[in-house]
Model the fold of this input.
Amino acid sequence: MAGLDDRATERDRVSMSARMTRESPLRPGTSSGSSRRSRDRSPSLRCGWTTGTCASAAAKAAAIGLVTGEPPHWVDVAIPDGRRVAFPVVVMGAHRCGVRKDAGDDPDCTHGALVCADVTFASGRETIFVAGEGVGTVTKPGLGLPVGDPAINPVPRRMIRAAVGEVTDRPLRVEIFVPGGEEMATKTTNERLGIVGGISILGTTGIVRPFSTAAWRASVVKQIDVVAASGQDVVVLATGSRSDRAAQRLWPELPETCFVEVGDFTGVALRHAASKGIREVRWVGMVGKITKLAAGVTMTHFRRTRVDTGLLERVALECGCGSAVVESAGATETARHFFETCMAEGDTRPLRRLCEMACERLRDHVGGRVSVSVTMVDFEGAEVVASAGVG
Done:
């Protein structure tokens, strides 16, 4: 049982949190803090929030209700990158609250779901999680969660703990439930994965970005439209966030609108850039996708196409590499081992040759209408290891 000082501390913490939420300008779909550029650069596609973010907000609201007896009607929580977002709360009881999930312009079966939490004080020393109505339970190993645990993934668990920790230091029993979740789960692969009884509480960034095939493709096209409309004739295509950060470091003089996270849609982006009169495309990425581009594959999704290990071996032989590099080409089905062996042997010739081949294939893809360069960065996006076509 908490003493008077503990209760006073909790009241102070809740009061401060509630005051921050009232004074905050945040609303769903917006966040505090800033980054150099928004992660969704499309002017027409809207990001949303993961079930993990919604669960953390619902749990915090329920915890406030548990401590004060008055659940809030708005609550703000931190997402993994440190920014904060506020949500309206559906009050269902003194310590029972829900938050409606908005998946933005990439809706899935959980879009519009009410993600709820029932929070009570725990008898043990740690906060525990319970799967309520509509939240699945893990029945098979290999998912990163113990068998028998609720299907609440590790990042959402950390978010929930951090959110309720803003309210009280005491351990809590957090039951997450989603009315209708069991029916939603029939539209997922949960049963095949061994998750029964409902949906999973997911999310690694807290944000749902428009990354479905159709939405992401549309986003890439829209972003290139913006570049062309702004009078720029250079587009920098990066495959993901690490490559994008590397690209920004390489060409800080370019306007922010020129940088496009293209994902697997290099071919789509290149053709659209050519159709819009873009003069130059600078492509930045890692060895796996460059190997696919070198083989003439411009839709580089890992499930659709595999790395051509035979190509890696031929390139290594043509470059006169030692046996360690040549043998590494076919050691795995990914290009990473080949890359790491080249780096360990101090021989980047095959990596440079892959960049040259990728350049040639991309230029051919648009009939030479666009000047193309290819830059390979390491897996952290920290260093350039090879390039071709760069002036």
Q: What stands out?
A: The first helix runs from residue 4 to 23. The CA atoms of residues 127 and 179 lie 23 Å apart. Residues 1-9, 15-27, 33-43, 300-304 have pLDDT under 50 and may be disordered. The two ends are 70 Å apart (CA to CA).
